[in-house]
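Weekly modeling sync, notes
Attendees: S.R. (lead), two postdocs, one rotation student

Agenda item 3: backlog of single-chain predictions. S.R. asked that every request posted to the team notebook include the full sequence so nobody has to chase files. The rotation student volunteered to paste the first one in as an example of the format we agreed on. Action items at the bottom.

Example entry:
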Amino acid sequence: MKRSTDRILTTHVGSLIRPEALQTFLRARQGGKPYDKPAYERCLTQSVAEIVGQQVDAGIDVVSDGEFGKAISWSQYALERLSGFERRPIAGGANPFKRGADRERFAAFYAELDAHDGVSTTVEAVCVGPVSYTGQAELQRDIDNFKAALTATPATEAFLPVAAPASVIPDRKNEYYKDDEALLWAIAEAMRTEYRMIVDAGFLLQLDDARNAVTFDRMVPPASFDDYRRWLERQVEVINHAIADLPPDRIRYHVCWGSWPGPHTSDVPLKSIVDLILKVKVGAYVIEGANPRHEHEWTVWKDARLAPGQVLIPGVISHATNVVEHPELVAERLVRLAGLVGRENIIAGTDCGFAQGPFHRRVHPSIMWAKLEALAEGARIASRTLWV
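Predicted structure, as returned to the notebook:
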């Protein structure tokens, strides 16, 4: 993994807004309508090439493929790469995603937000058989497209973001394994194939794991905080099993409190879980830190300690607001964190992805690029301060 040896490097969380041409194919695919598959593949290849070039032009050093190859969301995509699951209409129309203390407190707000987003979940995933990895061909296509794009537009480094075991198909139902924990371990074992293919292809592997922090809002109460901690400890154990045979310095671990632009008053404090996050055996931690609910938590790093060689990739740009951060503010955030963990141990990042699914975005595309440009400029300003 590249490090900030003479300047602050820049990256982001991974997902970027899909171009309209690609969305047209994906709407047909998701809707079960006929579409020109060779034309779709050509469009996907071209779209990945263009998005890599746009990232480099914006000043991003460590780039992704935008997650363009995922036809569903950042976590539900696994339904197309794992055996053993079937999709069913949600019983009674009760969406399992729409729960938690924040939603209960601000029910009227969330009703408006859901109506505005226009994105609804009408089916659920149920495990009905043994889980195994079947997505080799689709993943290899994504790897090939990304390599081709990087040949045309070289970047400092490249990563592919995929779901961590707990975040694979969140709120999944189990009708096959003896309990939910057995299903989780089966998913972790299956996903080892995906993780290995990415690392063997020469890319950084990023494990996206919003579920681990978000679960606190949905679990406590009625469960106790100690119950949640024990649950989280088990998730860390499962992650480490899934990546046990991979070099830690080729892996990034992304933690956030959910991408939606809500109040987030029930988020678990970073200081309460940072010790467990740091037990995940990876080279870099990608942690939300630019929004008003969590920016103050930069002080956590006064006491929390990275292991030698590890990197912190703090969110210094928010994905969830159309306000474009001033580069001077970005620089301030980076400089104060560099003072705690070391300038060479910082890479500038974003809070979360800009498009959690093919048709779901938090900001306008033009603002997404303005934010990434502000990120790059802020890193340049910080670098002039840190390397004098």
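Discussion: group reviewed the output briefly. The radius of gyration is 20 Å.
Action items: rotation student to repeat for the remaining queue; S.R. to check formatting next week.
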